[in-house]
Amino acid sequence: MAAVESEGSLMPESRQYELVYLVSPEVGEEGVGALHTQVEEIMTGLGGRIESTDNWGRRRLAYEISRHKDATYVVELVDGPPEVVRELDRRLNVMDTILRHLVVRVDEDLKKARRARERRQARQTKRSTARGVATVATPAEAAGSEVATAEADIARPEPPRERTEVSE
Predict the structure, then answer these.
(1) Which candidate, 38, 17, 18, 9, places its Cα nearest to that of 81?
(2) What separation, in Å, do the N-terminal and C-terminal C-alpha atoms of the chain show?
(3) Fewest C-beta in 10 Å: which of 2, 49, 80, 81?
């Protein structure tokens, strides 16, 4: 098992996963809340954590699952080592109230997207420097310059307008 040194302690490598599960329509809102609590207890008990939970509510299924035409969709973003997610997957398989579930690792995709964005920005800066154009500001810098421009516009009075009269 790979280990990462973080804040002076040796801990297992934590990864980010997206968990989606479909809850049977026979389970009410209280049951969905209780099921979320069970999933949270499993994750925290094994050393993982749930970052966010999004209850999509009851939706129609694309096809029938166990004679059900709709289900409650729940999407959660979880952090934890692979062993925790394997155990969570095993426990979700035996729960009767969950019709289907899917666990997908998303941390690699997020890293790839961040690297691609950084490369794109570096290329753009390099091209604009080669053309002799001022470098492109980051969104935060651009927002700061927009505020400065807006403040300058407020401070600058408008020139008087000339009136033209229309005669009939």
Answers:
(1) 17
(2) 90
(3) 2
| 10-51 per-position pLDDT tens digit | 445 888 999 999 999 998 889 999 999 999 998 898 888 999
pTM: 0.59
Compute and round to an integer the Cα radius of gyration of the chain: 27
Residue written as token pair 């008990």: 45
Token pair 């699952």: residue = 65
For 133, the token pair is 């154009």
Note the pLDDT tens digit of each residue in 143-156: 555 545 545 444 45
CA distance 14 to 117: 24
Nearest to 113 by CA among 21, 48, 6, 16: 16
Closest to 73 measured CA to CA, from 93, 56, 53, 51: 56
In contact, 114 and 37? CB cutoff 8 Å:
no
